[in-house]
Amino acid sequence: MSQKAQIGVTGLAVMGRNLARNFARHGHTVALHNRSYGRTKELVEEFGHEGTFLPAETAEQFVASLERPRRVVIMVKAGPATDAVIDEFAPLLEEGDMLIDAGNAHYADTRRREAALKAKGLHFVGAGVSGGEEGALHGPSIMPGGPKESYEALGPLLEDIAAKVDGEPCCVHVGPDGAGHFVKMVHNGIEYADMQLIAEAYDLLRRVGGHSPAEIAEIFKGWNEGRLGSYLIEITAEVLKQVDAATGKAFVDVVADAAEQKGTGRWTVQAALDLGVPVSGIAESVFARALSGGKDERAAAAEAGLPGPSAGAEHSGDLVADVEQALFASKIVAYAQGFQQIQAASKEYGWDIDPGAMAKIWRAGCIIRAKFLDFIKQAYDKKPDLATLLVDQYFLDAVSGAQDAWRRVVVTAAQQGIPAPGFASALAYYDGLRAERLPAALIQGQRDFFGAHTYQRVDKPGSFHTLWAAEGRPEVDA
Ligand code: NBP
């Protein structure tokens, strides 16, 4: 074969097909492969005119059509399929060649695969790709991990097809081994929190304010022009103004109220638990989806008639303005927690992730793209080791400016019996963070009482244990 491809894509379902087209539209020759040849054939028939594709029926033909170092993008169903593809291709590749897993793999799988392939002299790059099928075609946000040296040969191609902000690509080498997939996972976790907070804002505007979905769509449209400006706010307005053609009702009223999940939110919370990072905003959003899907429990509660508050107090304030403040402040908390998780993992695994660069590559192409990511980037540019985003001046001012309204909204939700776990837990996190003394001191006392777990004192160094059973006996150095 004379002509060689700069990059190849194996796995040509919706995501792989669109990524392949994106590479081709940017002038790269793209080798194509899929387990079943039908998808490969379809792609060439439908979109062959968009660029230069080299379709292959077998893995051997595909590998032979790639220039060296070979760059093989894997875009298959995450899990055993990825391992199957790696097992098929690795023996056909040579030292220095790259396998790039652009699917939604768990970062622990990516770490395992990277270590195994490194031993064979191959580069394995776990790359997070966000933006769904539209993003894959028109410019996703790309979060590649893997060996730094692989980025030299791979980075320019990925940057070519990535979304751009002021000409700057939304793609950067995140860090070694599983760093890219970890960051993509947290991105999805933050997305869960963002969506839950938006849903709570809608619910309060509807149930407390009595606004119709169409009116709330207009409110969100207005918010999208301000500091909340983001893709998720924009599409929320679109969803809320949608009318169901069959019934003439608001679309949101004909959709079953059980939110589904694919698992990346859950992974984020599981990883956060292991790292000991309180991502309460993400956790609440995962649990809220689980509660919404708890058919049996909800039916039992309805049957038992679990009572709400006897009299719902009026909201004291401008509800729309207050909810905007509560939404913005809670969103800041959720992002602060997500970034803290990234920093904790970076430290744990020695990834050396630049958090400001993550904010930068999320500004376009991905689901959580938002105006305020610019401020996150600036915060980390000013102070890369920022302990929490909440102490950066912009965010500190925003949250302190919002807090009275935020508290009013949480009070109203509690008094009227409307669940707002995202708003309430974000506020509790904020109050926990700023507390001079936490009741954790009492917990330490309890732990020492029942398990002799010892405690530290505020007035002198060392570990102490109180002889609880012997009344009046002094504490001892442990
Ligand atoms: P799917 O996740 O639906 O996977 C379908 C592809 O996997 C097909 O090409 C299929 O080949 C291939 N495949 C399977 Br299934 N088992 C295989 C095996 N044992 N060996 C080889 N190939 C196998 O495709 P998708 O929705 O395009 O998503 C691809 C990846 O991108 C996933 O990891 C997904 O999580 C991630 N992702 C998706 C989105 C999105 O919006 N959809 C967004 C971001 C990331 P076949 O044609 O022969 O059956």
Set down the secondary structure blueprint.
Layout: E1 7-10, H1 14-25, E2 30-33, H2 37-47, E3 53-55, H3 59-64, E4 71-74, H4 80-89, E5 98-101, H5 107-118, E6 123-130, H6 132-138, E7 141-144, H7 148-161, E8 164-165, E9 168-169, H8 179-207, H9 213-224, H10 231-241, H11 251-254, H12 264-275, H13 280-292, H14 295-304, H15 319-349, H16 355-361, H17 373-382, H18 393-416, H19 421-434, H20 440-451, E10 464-465, E11 476-477
Parallel strand pairs: 1-2, 1-4, 2-3, 4-5, 5-6
Antiparallel strand pairs: 6-7, 8-9, 10-11
GO molecular function, one term: NADP binding
Catalytic activity: 6-phospho-D-gluconate + NADP(+) = D-ribulose 5-phosphate + CO2 + NADPH
Protein name: 6-phosphogluconate dehydrogenase, decarboxylating
Domain module count: 3
Number of alpha- plus pi-helical segments:
20
Q: How much helix, percentage-wise, in residues?
A: 40-55%
At CATH's second level, what is the architecture of the largest domain? Answer: Orthogonal Bundle
CATH topology name of the largest domain: N-(1-d-carboxylethyl)-l-norvaline Dehydrogenase, domain 2
| N- to C-terminal distance | 74 Å
SS strand fraction: 5-15%
Low-confidence stretches: none
Shape: globular
